[in-house]
Amino acid sequence: MPGKTGRFGILEQLRADGITYMFGNPGTVEQGFLDALLDVTNDLRRDEIALVVARLRTRMERQFEDAGVLDAIGRAHLYPTVHAAVDAYTSRDGGS
Q: pTM for this structure?
């Protein structure tokens, strides 16, 4: 993929694999990561892929909010645990 950034490679692979949901379990963040996450989140949304975040702690939630990532993801896609996020989406899609 000459001339393309890593995020385009990730998006192409997600499309090729038929991925419709992407789960995140964030750790320590910095602004560069948040900027890239915002770009990827917006690209995923355009492709009708939901980014779901689990275990977002208060400090990081503020960083996501300040960077505009929280608005892009949507609070409805925040879950207290990975298990809760997976359960919500598998029950929503009939267990698929």
A: 0.61
Each residue's pLDDT tens digit, 27-49? 554 677 788 888 888 888 888 88
In-domain check, residue 1: no
How many structural domains is the chain composed of? 1
- Give the burial string for 49-83 (b: 16+ CB within 10 Å, else e): bbbbbbbbeeebbebbeebebbebbeeebbbeeee
pLDDT at 76: 93
Tell me how far apart the alpha carbons of residues 95 and 15 are, in angstroms, rounded to a whole number. 21
pLDDT given at position 1:
44
Answer whether residue 37 is part of any domain.
Answer: yes
Give the residue numbers spanning the domain of 68.
Answer: 6-92
Cα 69–chain centre separation: 9
